[in-house]
Amino acid sequence: MQPGEFTFGDSVVIELKTDDEEIKRAANFLKTFVEQTGSCKAQIGTGEEARNKIVFTVCDTIAHDEAYRLDVSPRTITIASKGGAGAFYAVQTLRQLLPAECEKKICDENVILQVLCMNIYDEPRFKHRGFMLDVARHYFPLDFIKKNIDIMTLYKLNVLHLHLTDDQGWRIEIKSHPRLTSVGAWRKQSIAGHKNDVPRKYDGKPHGGYYTQDELREIVEYARERFIEVIPEIEMPGHASAALAAYPWLGCAGEGYMVRTRWGVFPEVYCAGKDSTFEFMENVLAEVCELFPSEYIH
What we know:
Blueprint lengths: L4 E3 L3 E6 L4 H16 L4 E4 L8 E6 L9 E5 L3 E6 L2 H14 L16 E3 L1 E5 L7 E5 L7 H13 L4 E5 L1 E2 L2 E2 L8 H4 L3 E2 L3 E2 L8 E2 L4 E2 L4 H12 L4 E5 L7 H6 L28 H17 L7
Parallel strand pairs: 2-3, 2-4, 4-6, 9-10, 10-17
Antiparallel strand pairs: 1-7, 5-6, 5-8, 11-12, 13-16, 14-15
Helix pairs in contact: 1-2, 3-5
């Protein structure tokens, strides 16, 4: 901690001392955030004449890709990093240092955008900081996923693990196999209470939904802009009831499958004794790989 505080006032200049496109992305994120408070205007430019300025710069002595220095003085906030990820996480720390009311779209008039003076050096302990969302057992709309990405952003999480397929639903559009969503994305009801209740209770309400490939590209891009990698999960060889209900020939019995309406582990699996099963999986994964540029697929 240092004495004094930095006050945003009616306006602030965001100055870029680099041409790095990812650092520019972090600066634009900060500009949008500041302006959404409704109490301060922000512009990206040179800060020589500015009373208050926030400076983004590259620091060659910072070795970690996600590390940053955040130095707050009464007139200037300096964000130094190796690249875009570190600059972006510095912006999230700056958000956390501002009054909580700033997270609203519009601040109350009496809220002062002010940060205490301090020097921070920060780097992550863990490379993979993940959040897993199970959309297979419960479908969540696109806006809900974006809201979760926004929350992940604030906490500097960098991996969104989307659990897209399971016994209770198939949530990813596969153009070569349309029944995966027309059939596999829908179950007739869901269990209510515990699966071991006697008699077992159900809600009697159909449940389902899926993400088109365009929607998934939108999720991937929305996450990428916030330095979050999306890892898709495509279950195999088990947890395959929804796929088997869509294409019964994928299973060894060849019939009698359904999208499961309760939780648990089920004996139905893809039949490993058929070449057609492997051809199906190769076709599915080819489309998944095209949608998700992540290093891994679960």
